[in-house]
Amino acid sequence: MTTRLQHLALRSESDVFVARQRAREVAAAVGLEHQDQVRLATALSEVGRTLFTDHGGPAATAAEVWFAVDDGKLQVEVVAIGPGQAAQLPSLGRLVDSLTIDDGPTTTVVRMSRRIPGGVELTPDRLDRIRADLAASAPRTPLDEMAEQNEQLLTALEETRAHRDDLARLNAELEETNRGVLALYTQLSDELEETNRGVVALYAELDERSAQLRAASEAKTRFLANVSHELRAPVTAVIGLARLLDDPESDPLTDDQARQVALIRSSSDDLLRLVNDLLDLAKAESGTIEPDWSDVDLRLLFSQLRGTVRAMATGAVELVVSDPEPPATIRSDEVLLAQVLRNLLHNGLKFTAAGEVRMSAEQHGDDWLIRVVDTGVGIPSELQDRIFEEFYQVPGRSPTGAKGTGLGLPYARRLVTLLGGAMSVISEPGAGSTFTIQLPAARPDGTS
Question: Structure pTM?
Answer without folding.
Answer: 0.45
